[in-house]
Amino acid sequence: MNNEKIKTFIQLHILLFVFSLFYLASKIASNKLPEEISLNSLLTVIKTNFWGIAIPGGCAFLALAIYAVFFQQILKKVKLTTAYANKAVGIFWAFLYAVFILYDPNAVLTWGKVIGFILIIAGIILINSEKTDDNVNNKKKEYTGEKVKT
Predict the structure, then answer these.
(1) What span, in angstroms and rounded, lies between the C-alpha atoms of 11 and 40?
(2) Buried-state track 107-119, b at ≥16 Cβ within 10 A, e below 16
(3) pTM (two decimals)
């Protein structure tokens, strides 16, 4: 990988981390809501705990706004399929949030999850490898009749 590609990869993953904060802020805001929502219960929660919902909700909106603006800039440098394949790292971030920030008792590290995380990371490495990009570019050139470097 050349330096520019590494820099873009790091920028993409910082941006995906910012996007994952949307999930965290949404979960924090939703924890303030009653399990069964009716108009009365919703109005009561808004009256009694407005800032407990508004601040995480605003943070979620801000994370999405930042993501939307900068993702467009990343797409100028990276193929859409590559950018979306890297989005799978959000599953890893969500698990870390559940364990270390939300203290979710259901978020237990199992061998299945470890294998899943390893597969996600391996897939991201494979998608971002230069060899894969070169093979795709060579296939495009063969299809269009251009000469392929060997």
Answers:
(1) 44
(2) eeeeeeeeeebee
(3) 0.73
